[in-house]
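Human: For the file, kindly provide a plain-text protein record giving the amino acid sequence and the backbone structure tokens, at your earliest convenience.
Assistant:
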Amino acid sequence: MKISELIKKYDTQNQYNVLIESYKQIENTWDTEINPNKIQVNELNNIVVSGMGGSAISGDLLKCFLNEEIKIPLIVNRYYSVPDYANPKTLVIISSYSGNTEESILSLQDALKKKCGIIVISTGGKVKEIAQQNNLPWIRLQEGFQPRYALGTSFFTLLKLLQSLKLIQEQDNIVNEIIALWKEKGSEYSREENPALDYAEQLTGFIPLIYTSSVFESIGYRLKCQFNENSKLHAFNNVLPELNHNEIIGWETFLDKQINLKLITVTDKNYHPKINKRFEITSELAKAAGVEIISLQSNSENLKVRIMDLIYLGDWITYYLAVLRGFDPSEINNINILKQRLA
């Protein structure tokens, strides 16, 4: 069956078109003015991005994206409260696409108790209500998407916010490059034959194990989560050099395990030379254990563009793997069951 027929059969919410037009989310976000008042930036000691799932991954990517330029410590918080060290000199950004994530609601309430500087980002929901009740800045996200398919609005809203606060340099040129790239790649990946589909076909019937460098950890984690939610598949990720101090030993007996696994390595030309050597040796050991390796790398000149290039490719791979396996890439039944039980 052709991929177009599989898409028509299994993609009930037309995420295919959402992926093609993801660049429009960036355009919409970057054209929106952000004017977060009441935040004294010169007194900030640290930034906490508090969220879960698709809303939290934007914070992870922000750390990777701004690794070489942000001067204030930034962490991503996935819990029911903010860290104990949070205080009036902490900027807490509550990132919740729906606005109704219970961890985000409670961490917002905790940040209020600790008198932190707070900005709320959502499409609406309970966190918007709390923000308005407490006269806090609230930034509206573009509506109509599932959180994991809303990266173009959630990530670039965070980026625009930090730019508006003058915590980072102007990002306009880079953002325009990313818009152009996603538009071009969306056209490429939506053809009947394309690289993303090829990777998905190679992964059909296998569990993905993803290796990145520690500086690209958020890319590996995003890809793992997309395999989980889109492809309905277990996936695992780890980082070099840390995995060379533990996980590498697992390859010694891998042939005895009879696990259908493929290794995905996410490489980059700017990795430290020692990291590149570690990738080379680790890949040789994995191959010797009988594992096929898929290598993902972006050829874009700018590091930030390469990051978003890999993110977008991963979104398409996991989408195609879903329909190839006969699953709806929109469906998240187990998450819905969990929410109902918790309620």
